[in-house]
Amino acid sequence: MPLRGKACVTVCLVLAAAVGCTSGDGDAARTDPPTPAPTSTERPSTGAPTSKPPHPVSLPGLIAREHRGSGLRLGAVRARTDAYIQYAVTYEANGLTISGLMNVPEGRGPFPALVLAHGYIDPAVCTTGRGLAREQDLLARSGYVVLHTDYRDHAGSDDDPDNDVNLRLGYTEDVIAAVKALRDSGRPEVDGDRIGLLGRSMGGGVVYNTLVVAPGLVDAAVVHAPVSSRPEENIDQFQRRNGDPVVAEIEAQHGSPEENPAFWREVSPITYVDRVTEPLLIRHGTADETCPLEWSERTTAAFEAAGKDVRLVKQPGKGHTFYARWRTSMDTTMGFFDRRLR
Prior knowledge:
342 residues, alpha/beta, 10 helices
């Protein structure tokens, strides 16, 4: 699951410029007599420190940002089935145009909607709507409008040269914007008051981030075989051991977990589970060798410790892709969404 080797230091250079511009003048070489303090009836400053703005590459940075999602446009019809019509779509996410697919059920709406966040696909080979194809079809046949986002840098979406070195936090912006664009669209097929999230593998981590950054945005969330809620573990699992050069670029920009633990805490959704307000279902195979089950066990424990509505369903003997008995196992996911969105 390697990140692409595109690194850009613009964000952090801007930040460094903003916080590093302090005066270099000192008093030791001054020969002029000091200027007398002016007489004033104003109260002196208390010296109370001003709050430091959050690092722009962090979950607090995303929390502080005003997120915009709009301009949902239905393009060419990609497929017609007996149950739904599939459209190529675009929408706007904080100034970027993002592509994707949307399945609209046949019949009388409005329908509840789901935004799907796919797992890792090499952006160099990604095509529109690739990923979660089985889920896109089944959920639309079950009466949901299904919007599958391609993310920035993928398929027909705009590029974001900073995204890889900045821990792919831009994908979280794209998912938040997808929900907002659905709600803003005014389309009669979409019930903007009933929207959920489904993420798989890497997309599960995007869902975790979204729940933390924008509590109340959706009504329920499901993740299948998710990555760790600690990004440093994902880097160790998928990049460092494979010699991915992007790891060095990330750590040159942000420091290693040992050198800059504060940064890594602030990009980890597990740090902020107290913000989450939506019910969450986690499905994970006990034989998953790609994303170890213990990652989901630890994330579930953190949600439970914070008093959140979370359920971990362990799929006995299943690996990362749930191929065996996939359709039967999806009943758990659809039942969860049906109880909360219908």
